[in-house]
Amino acid sequence: MDLALERYGVWLRSTVVCLCGALGVASADGAEIPLALSLLVPALLSCGVHLYALRRPLPLAPLWTLDAAVVVLTGLSQPVLGGDGADVMVEAIVSICVITFQHEWATRPVAGAALAASGTVACALGDILSSPGHRPELADLVRIVVLAGLSRAAYLIVRARARVADRSAALRAAARREAEVAAARRATEREYLATLHDTASATLLMVSQGDARDWSWLPQRAREDLEALSAVPGFETGSVDLAALLGCVPGGPGGEGQAMVQLKTRIDGPLAVPSGPGLAIFSGVREAVTNVARHAGVREAELRAWAEGDGAVVVELSDAGRGFDPESVPARRRGISGSVIGRMHAVGGCATVTSHPGAGTRVQWRWQAQARAPQAGPEAQAADMPRPTRARAHTAVVRLIRRQLLHGAQLAALLISLLSQFIFSLQQVTAYQSVYQPAWAQTAGYVCLAAVAVTGAAYLLRGRQIPPRVRAWSLGSVLTVSAVCAFTLAPERLTGAEDWAFGLVGWHALFLLADLPVRAFAAFLGAHVGLNAIAVFLSGAPTVAESAVMGITAITTCGFQLSVGVLLTRLLHGTAPEAGTEAAREEELRTRERIHEDMQRDHKERYRALTATTVPLLMGLGHGVLSPHDEEVRLRCGVEAARMRRLFAESDAVSDPLLNELRACVEVAEHQGVTVSLAVRGRPREVPVQVRRELIDPVAVTLGHARSTARVTVVWTPRAVRVSVVGVNCADGRSPGDAAPSHSPATDAKVSVARTTRGGSVWVEASWSKTAASEVDRT
C-alpha cells in the first residue's frame, strides 16, 4: 500500500504541476512568461527525478533536499511574478506538493511534516514580500496546514483499516491452517491405521490363531511389515505402472501367503498412474486377496485391470466363494471400510464391493486422472487437495481487504468533508452573505450538505455501508446544491474565495460513490464542473486569465478528488488482490511447514509406541528368534492384535466409543475360538480417549490369554465407569498382569486396576472416577 501511495503522490504532483504551470504561463503577461517558465523548471526537475526514482531508488537525502528547494522557491516567487493568476498558480503548486508529500514520505512522517512546514513558511514570506506592509492571508496559510494534516490523517485511517484487514485475514488464515493441518493429520492417521491393519495386525492375528502348517512365509512377511511401519505413512512421489504392481500381489503369480490364492489375471498394461492411487489400489487388492483366503471358502479368484476411454483405470477382483452381505459388516471391521474403500477415497478415487450370500464377491477400484492431480503424499495432499477451498479462501481474503480499504477511504473522505465544511466553508458562507443572490439559497445549500455529511457519518462510523436509496437521495441533494450555488453567485466569483461549495461537493460525492467504479465518480465531477461552466458562459465568455484561474482551481480541487478516486480503484482492484495472493502464498507455506512438522512428530510418536510391543514381535518373527509354534509367542501376538483392533476402533464415529472399542477386542478373541459374553449396565457417558485406552487394555490382555470362555461387563454410574473381565481357562493359569503396556503413551488418567487369579480363571477390573481423575485432555 505504501508503494502505491508513493507512486500516486509522485504522479499526481507531476500532473498538477504541469497543468497548473501551463495555465499559469498562459495567464501571465508577456513580460512575466520567462519568469513563470523559470519557476516551473525546478518543479519539473523535481518531478522528473522522483519519477526516475520510482524505477531506480535514489538516496533519500537528495530527494528530500530537492523537494524542500521546490516548495521554498515556489513560495518565494510571488513578488517576482505578481498578479492574481500567478498567486493562484503558486498556491496550487505548493498546496498539491504539501498534500502529496504526506503520501510520498508516508513512512517518514517527520520528513513530510518538515516539507509541509517549509512550504507554508515560504508562502507566508512570499505573500509578505509581494505586499509590503500587509499581513499575509492567514486563511490561505491555515488551509495549507489543514490540507497537510488531512492528507496525513487520511493515510493513517486507510493504513489502520488495512492493518485491521491484515489481522482479520491472519486470524482466518490461522483457522484455515489449523483445519488443514487437522485434515492432513486425519488423512495420515487413516493411512497409518490402514497400513497397520494390512501388515502387522493381519500377521500377528494369523500367528495368534496358529492355523497355518507352513510358516515359511512368516519371516519375510514380518520383515516387510516392520519396514512398512518404520517408513513415514503415505504415498511416494512420481508415477508407477499399476500392471507391474498388480503382478506382485501376494497370492498371485510369484507371490506367497498364508494360504495361497490362485489368481487368474487379465491385465491390459502398461497402466501408468500416479503412485498415490497406484499404491492405494495395490494395497487394497492385497487386502482383498487376503479376505478371499480367509472368508470366501475358495482358493481361486480373477484379477482384471484395464483403462477406459475417458482415462479411468479400473481394477476388479472377483471370486465365486460363499459371498456375504456388505451392509451387515460392522463399521469396526477395517478390511473393507479402511483398506479398500477409505484408501481410494483418500486419493480421489472410488471402490465398490458387490456381494450376496452364495453368489461370490466382486471388488472394483476406479481412478480417473481428471478427477485429481497427482499428489506427493498426505502432506501435499492436505496442502494441495482443497483447491476450490483455497480459491474461495483467497477470494474471501481479497474481499476482506477491499472492504476494509473501502471503509477506510470512505472514512477519510468523510473526515475531509466534515472538517472542510465546518471550518473553511462555514467561514466563507458567513463572511460573504452579502455577495450571494439570494443569500438564503446558499445557506439552505450549506445546511443540505451538512445533512448529507451527518447522514453518511451515521452509517460509516458504525461500520455499515450507505444504503442505495440513501445514497441516491444524497447524490441528488449534492448535485442540486452544486447547481444552486453556481447560479446564485456572480460568475466572476465562481471558484474564488466566495465559492464555498465548489471544492466541498466532490468530497461528499467521494464517500458516497467510493464503492462504485471510478467512472461514476468521474461522471459526477463532470456534471458538477459542467454546471459551473454553464453558469459562467451564460453571463458571457470569460477572459483567458479568468479561464486560466478557474482551470487551475478546477484541477487542484476536482482533479485532486478524481485522482483520489483513481487511487482508491487501484488499491481495491490492484493492491488488494496482490495482498491476498501474497497472504495465500504465505499461508500455504506455513501450512506445509506445520503439516510436515506435525506429521513427523506423529510418526515418531506412533513408532515410539510400537517399539514396546509390536516391533519386538515382528523383529523376533522376522529373524527367527521367536517361533509361531510357541504358545507364549502366539499369546503375545493375540494380545497385540487385540490392541491394534481397539486402536482402529478409536476413529469410529459412534455414540459409545468405549463399548465400540471393547467389541473390537472381543471380536479378536472370538476369532481365536473364545466364547465371549458382553454385558452393559447403566447409561454411557463421555470418557476421554486416554482413559478409554487404560480401561480397555487390561481387558484386551486377559481376553488374549483366555482359551475357552470369557465374560466382559461394563458398569456405568453417574461419576464413574468400571470395566471387568473374567477369563476362564487362561493359558497356563498365568496372570496377564505383567503383559506389556499398550501402544498409547503413558497418561495421568489414574485408572485403577484390580486383578485376582484362581486356578485357571482370571478376574480383572479397571475403574475410573471423574472425582478422582486429574484433568485429562478430551480428544
Automatic annotation (TrEMBL):
Official protein name in the record: ATP-binding protein
Organism field: Streptomyces montanus
The record, for InterPro entries, names: HATPase_C_sf (IPR036890), HATPase_dom (IPR003594), Sensor_HK_TwoCompSys (IPR050482)
Q: Where are the transmembrane segments?
A: 10-27, 33-54, 405-424, 444-461, 473-491, 521-541, 547-568
On the tree of life, the source organism's domain of life is Bacteria
Chain spans, region Disordered:
732-755
Q: Name one GO biological process term.
A: phosphorelay signal transduction system
Q: Which UniProt keywords apply?
A: ATP-binding, Kinase, Membrane, Nucleotide-binding, Transferase, Transmembrane, Transmembrane helix, Two-component regulatory system
Query: What lineage is on file?
Result: Bacteria, Bacillati, Actinomycetota, Actinomycetes, Kitasatosporales
What SUPFAM superfamilies does this protein map onto? ATPase domain of HSP90 chaperone/DNA topoisomerase II/histidine kinase (SSF55874)
MF terms from GO for this chain are: ATP binding; kinase activity
Residue spans making up a coiled coil are none
**One Pfam family from the record:** HATPase_c
- Residue span, Histidine kinase/HSP90-like ATPase domain: 284-368
